[in-house]
Design goal:
The chain has helices at about 5-35, 40-55, 60-75, 90-110, 110-130, 135-205, 210-230, 255-260, 280-300, 340-350, and strands at about 265-270, 305-315, 320-325, 355-360, 365-375. It is of the alpha+beta class. It has a five-stranded mixed beta sheet with strand order 1-2-3-5-4, with helices on one face. Strand 1, helix 9 (about 280-300) and strand 2 form a beta-alpha-beta unit. Helix 1 (about 5-35) packs antiparallel against helix 2 (about 40-55), helix 1 (about 5-35) runs antiparallel to helix 4 (about 90-110) and helix 2 packs parallel to helix 4 (about 90-110). It is elongated and about 110 Å long. The chain starts with 6 loop residues before the first helix and ends in a 7-residue tail after the last strand.
């Protein structure tokens, strides 16, 4: 069982909300002491609106940023109206909410929109500075704006590098699958050639046996076409077609893989549902690669694990493989921003119509689970 990672999104949002509430409360208390007990409410409401938009920014980054800037501009300009006696200014809590909105926009939006949001924030700060020259509020807002733009640009650069690295991994995995496709099809075509040559000889000696030979050739061609349809789309993304790399061994090689791993890592227990059936070559190779990558990650990230259990199950619908270790819960593991080997495995599994999950187990340790369907008509 894999623990959902929604807490990785909920906990930071809750922490940011607590920071916003604390900043709003401190600002309201300071305004009540300096401007009177009734002066803090409008600023607190405006700040709460901007901070609330910052908390839901992920749903629509452009419009939440625009709305936050509009609220901030109103907080600066409305107190200038005749007869209005309110403190004019962004306030530290509002400046904090704007900083989050601007940083998020600079990080994720297209360059033109990101620049427009950052420019809008600068205009609001300029208006604040014009309304209250020399005010510390404008200096605080300007510092928050600079920090937001700098952090947004830094995260944008890191995201770009991570996407490029992930794309390189996906491309490499697709090229590897293309090589395997070459080997699979070459195997079947070689068999078809041999059978056709044999059929010519049989036709001269026993013409009645020719239909049987032709049926075998047809079956081999059908199997080759089925394998090609599942993987041939990957060839569109690569130009490496030398086909020199051998395909990885299938489940029959898992025992040797486990034995090699046992010499360097914790003990491994392999449970394979062996009913004598054969798997399609691309499914067999993917099962092997998933186990290989998972065991490699155990060596790299779970050095305190004492044992690893590998379970390979088969049913009429497909194949399921799970690799689970008993490492302590605090062991470092690759998450969404790391573990490019798992990205490649997920790409391979999804290409075959399956799914792959990796994450901590409730009772400790880590689990990698892949499910691979076997198309109808294929052996299992």
């Amino acid at each position: 069982m894999i623990v959902p990672d929604r807490w990785a999104r909920v906990v930071p949002a809750v922490g940011l909300g607590v920071v916003f509430l604390t900043a709003i409360a401190v600002q309201a208390l300071a305004l009540a002491q300096t401007w009177g007990s009734s002066s803090w409410a409008p600023g607190a409401v405006a700040s709460a609106a901007v901070c609330g938009l910052a908390l839901i920014r992920g749903r629509a980054r452009t419009w939440t940023a625009v709305a936050g800037l509009a609220v901030a501009a109103a907080a600066v300009l409305v107190p200038l109206a005749p007869g209005v006696r309110l403190p004019a200014g962004l306030g530290p809590s509002m400046a904090l909410g704007l900083a989050v909105l601007i940083a998020s926009a600079v990080r994720a939006l297209p360059p033109v929109r990101a620049g427009a949001v950052a420019g809008g924030g600068m205009l609001v700060i300029a208006a604040q500075s014009a309304v209250r020259p020399g005010s510390a509020v404008a200096a605080i807002a300007a510092a928050a704006w600079l920090a937001a733009v700098a952090s947004g640009l830094s995260l944008r650069l890191l995201d770009g590098r991570a996407k490029a690295a992930a794309e390189r991994v996906r491309r490499a995995e697709r090229l590897e699958l293309a090589r395997e496709l070459h080997d699979i099809v070459a195997h079947h075509i070689t068999g078809m050639l041999i059978q056709s040559q044999a059929a010519r000889i049989v036709a001269r000696r026993d013409p009645g046996s020719v239909p049987d030979s032709l049926a075998e050739i047809e079956a081999a061609g059908t199997e080759a076409m089925a394998a090609m349809r599942r993987v041939v789309g990957l060839l569109r993304d690569g130009d490496d077609t030398d086909g020199t790399a051998p395909a990885p061994p299938g489940p029959e090689g898992l025992g040797a893989l486990v034995e090699r791993f046992g010499r360097r890592g914790p003990s491994v227990r392999l449970n394979v549902s062996d009913d004598g059936a054969q798997w399609p070559p691309e499914v067999a190779g993917t099962v092997y690669r998933v186990v290989q990558e998972a065991l490699t990650n155990v060596l790299r990230h779970a050095r305190h694990a004492r044992s690893v259990e590998i379970t390979v199950g088969r049913d009429p619908d497909g194949v399921t493989v799970e690799i689970a270790d008993d490492a302590p819960p605090n062991a470092a593991r690759p998450q969404h921003r790391g573990g490019y080997g798992l990205i490649g495995m997920r790409e391979r599994v999804q290409t075959l119509g399956g799914s792959l999950r990796a994450g901590p187990r409730p009772d400790g340790g880590w689990s990698v689970r892949a499910t691979l369907p076997v198309p109808a008509g294929e052996p299992l």
